[in-house]
Specification:
single chain; alpha+beta; Nucleotide Exchange Factor Grpe, Chain A, domain 2; 3 domains; three-stranded mixed beta sheet; 6 strands
């Protein structure tokens, strides 16, 4: 028996529309949308990957910083080693000269021995790039000289020139490492 309480064509339209299938209707997002879960999972995976890269990069930078600090400390501790090793020969000569001074009465021979030690020392320092600055009878230059005193110049052409060196200035590989302390004519 047919249900006569329905209107003609109503049964057909009820079969066509399924009320529980709202996810299939355009414009509606259902809570269990599988595409949305995939996007969330992708974003979560990408976030985890970026976190991992960040942690690894930070650890690599931290290791670099520690290694660099260690190498710097080693460099500072051994920076003078080269110059010290080269001066050991001069030190040996100084010891021999001191021993010879105690045993020798010939002052000329002692002076010559000491002069040889001084020359060896100067040559060793020059080989390492150290050069004395020539200042006497040159124009006073604030970039190279430090004036300790001014004295009257003996002649007019010596005004503004260096008359004497109190302390010699030095260049290391053409870079000033100590300014010359000088007496300037006024």
């Amino acid at each position: 028996m047919e249900n006569n309480n329905s209107f003609p064509g109503e049964k057909e339209s009820m079969e066509e529309i399924n009320i529980n299938a709202d996810a299939d209707i355009p414009g509606n997002n259902h809570l269990t949308n599988p595409e949305e879960n995939n996007i969330t999972e992708k974003l979560q995976a990408e976030l985890e990957e970026q976190k991992d890269k960040y942690i690894r990069l930070f650890a690599e930078f931290d290791n670099f910083r520690r290694r660099n600090a260690k190498e710097r400390m080693e460099l500072i501790q051994t920076a003078g080693k080269d110059i010290i090793v080269s001066l050991l020969d001069v030190m040996d000569d100084c010891d021999r000269a001191e021993k010879q001074m105690q045993n020798s009465e010939d002052i000329t021979q002692v002076k010559q021995g000491i002069q040889l030690v001084f020359n060896k020392f100067r040559n060793t320092m020059a080989a390492k790039g150290l050069k004395p600055m020539e200042s006497v009878n040159t124009d006073f230059d604030v970039e190279k000289h430090e004036a300790t005193t001014e004295v009257p110049a003996p002649t007019d052409d010596m005004k503004g020139k260096v008359l004497d060196e109190v302390t010699k200035g030095y260049l290391l590989n053409d870079t000033i490492i100590r300014f010359a302390k000088v007496v300037v004519g006024k």
